[in-house]
Task: structure prediction
Amino acid sequence: MEDLTCLGNLRHLKFLNLIGCGKLKYIFEKSALAGGSDPNGLFPRLRKLVMNYLRELQGWTNIGEGVGDNNHINSSFSMAPIPLPQLTFLWIEDCPNLISILLCPNLVELYINWFNKRLQIIKKLGNEKADASGSTTGSSNVISKLRLMQDDVLWLNSFPREVIQSLDELRMSSELESLKEAGDVFSSCSSSLRSLRIEKCRKLRSVISGGLEHLTALQDLTISECPNVNLLGEEEGMNTIGMPWPSFSHSLRNLTTTNDWMPKLTSLRILRFFCCSKRLKERCQQPTGEDWPHIQHIPSIQFHE
Result:
């Protein structure tokens, strides 16, 4: 089945999960227009939409959008936003050909992985015109609360700055070598981001400066499965930076010592180590451990296998 035109009659539908539909190319087929269906108003009450492992999905409808012959993007597609006025939850994963503009004025939670960078998700389109990067002009597109699971944090640069200024939770896994590359993103949400998970960033070496120091509201930081991460404050300029985070969690098997910049985390309340080395655990023991002076100000220090 290449389309789901039959769903056009479900105007009261609130939840839609599309998972593993290997032949699906469009949600709506153009021939159904003869029956009076409106491709832009298929799901006026849809609140939750999950699209997962739809590798052939190209767009919402095959009228003036999608991937044309020889995989060339249809240029007229960018002027056809698809309104989802009640949508609050959107999950898009492994949809490499999906390039629709989704207009989601009430979006709260966004989970997105393995997607086409031409995909656009916007909050408002009054008299504004959306360009190829997703930027708009005119009134604000602020997302009041957004949780984002993202495999390429630099994709956030395609949003206008005001769109992500209220981002409160970010989970990222990317090819970044340094968080300095994401400095503009972090500075945009510096006063709102409360939770950051950095996972499976195999190339990541630097996390201390060039990004995280902007996050003054951060309450929970987790670094996991990043084998090359360097936490040495001397190399990162930590002598001038104090980061007031309540918790700092990491899973770094090669880490054998904490560093003397740890006391600069003056608001740190919980320090968690996941699957750390035996040597590190010994160095952090109270009161004789060599690293105990670095972490003795932290009320709760936890080791997890």
User: Anything to note?
Assistant: Confidence is low (pLDDT under 50) at residues 65-79, 127-141, 233-240. The helical segments are 183-188, 233-236, 278-283, 292-295. The chain has two domains: 1-141, 174-305. The first strand starts at residue 15 and ends at 19.
